[in-house]
Amino acid sequence: MIDIRVMPDKRALGEAAAADAAAILREAIAREGRAHVVAATGASQFEFLEALVRAPGIDWPKTVFFHLDEYVGLPDSHPASFRRYLRERIVDRVHPGTFHFIAGDARDPAAECRRVGGLIGVCAIDVAFVGIGENGHLAFNDPPADFETQDPYLVVDLDEACRRQQLGEGWFERLDDVPRRAISMSVAQILRSRRILCVVPDARKAQAVKASLQGGISPLRPASALQRHAATTVYLDPDSASLL
Description:
By secondary structure, the chain is an alpha/beta fold. The protein has a single domain (2-236), classed as 3-Layer(aba) Sandwich (Rossmann fold), CATH 3.40.50.1360. The chain is 32% helix and 19% strand. The protein has 7 helices and 10 strands. A 7-stranded parallel sheet has the order 1-10-9-6-2-3-5, sandwiched between helices. It has a 3-stranded antiparallel sheet with strand order 4-8-7. Helix 1 (10-32) packs across helix 2 and helix 2 (46-53) runs parallel beside helix 3. It is globular, with a radius of gyration of 16 Å.
């Protein structure tokens, strides 16, 4: 079931999602002694992550983070590296107990999928933070997405719409600079999370939001898979909710 929350602006959206995320983390730590989290990246997560790292009462050393996706072949020193993004916005700010990064520049991407898949496969994820791409992707599962694989991570091809989104957000100077492959958490693994918080601001996401939340469930609309999840909250601003 999807709970849709439309907030007055992007800042309010981020604060609302962060307040809910903080409550989930505090509850998991109190219940289990540790909270397991999947973290997303991208421009859509800026306000949310900024509010989350300032949230009170989270025992960050008792959190274990997993990485949602990463470009194949990109070093972590690159400005567009999601490892760099997460270090700057989470790790260096609050120092989680553990952060399992995807090594996108590993020599063997398939082996890297198996490595991080083995780590997450023994954990119950308390909450996953995700977004929805302009092409409806969930993580880097571009359409048509693989809804069938049960592997936690897989190597995927990035379509042109996805690559143009990364260019448009300013992560790369030219389209040819945007990698054509990535390691992504699978749709099935995302849906194994106990809670999913989906943060989606901006008018450029409005069509994808409408298709994902009000269209049928289809690999052509990867984020529509969230309709299958029992506890997903989607946070929108007036722009991203404008077509609902």
